[in-house]
Amino acid sequence: MIELEKQFELPIISSFNVLREYIAKFIDFDVPSNYTNNAQPLEFIRLYDIENDQPTSIVHEPILTTLKQARVRDLCSYAFEILSHPEYLAKKDLLLNIVYSKDTNNNYFQHKFELHWSIRDNTSAKYEYLEHHILLHLKSLIDDNLYDKNDSKEIIKITIARYFPDRGQWIIIDPSLITNKKVKTSNLNLKLEPYKLLDFTVLGILEGEQLTAEDFDTQFDKIKRQEIEHEKEQKRTNRERNRTENDRNQQNGNSGRRKSPQHTMRINVDDFNS
What is the bridge-based pairing of β-strands 94-103 and 202-207? Predict the structure, then answer.
C-alpha cells in the first residue's frame, strides 16, 4: 500500500463522491478513451475503509453517504483503488471474488474474476439471482475468449461453494439443504447464516450437479487445514503442560502464586497535621 502525502480538507456534510473527485484530480486521472462520453474520473475510484493499515470494507453509496453519516473524524484514513471501469455500489450490492475452471492435475482454480452483484433495496440476496448472474458472466467470459464463436459452449448447471479462508473449508451453497422451517428455501438470504456473503467473499464455481465440498478442495486448502490442526494440537499440548506443572507445584506446596506473608505487624503513624 502506497501512502499519499496529502491531506484533504472536506466539509463534514460532503459525500464520499467529493473525496473521490479530490483524489482523481490529485493523481491527474484521465477517463479511458472508451468511457469518455459517459463517465467521470471519480467513478473509477473505489474507496476502502482502513483498520490497522489494512482495507476492511468498501464504501457503498458514495454519492449518497456523507462523511458525517459515516462518522468520519479528523485524520481518518481511507484507501483507494483505480479501476479499469466506472463503478457505483448501491447499499446492498456485493463484490464477490469468483474462482472457476479447476485444474484436476495441479489441483487449483485456473481463473478468477470479480463479480459486482447488484441487489435492489426491495430484494434479498437469493440463490437463484446469484446463480443467474454468475451464469451470464461466465458465458460472456467464455465467448470473449473463443476465437471461433461457433464453438461457444453453453453452461447449463453449476455448483457454487463458499470458501472460508480462516478454516480452509468450502461449503456448498444449496438452500434446499437448509432445514430451518421458519424460512422458505426460496426466500433464504445468502447474506445470513450459514453462508454470510460479504464483500470479497470467495465463491468457487464448478460445472455439474450433486457435487460435494471435496470436489472444490485444493492442495492449498488441505495444507491450510493441516496448519490449523497443528496449531490446535500445539495449544492443547501447552494447556496439558501448564496443567501438569500446576499440579506438580501444588503437590510440592508451591502454587506458583505469590504467597501471603507469614508474619505481620501493625504500624501506627502519627498524624502530623494535627
Answer: parallel
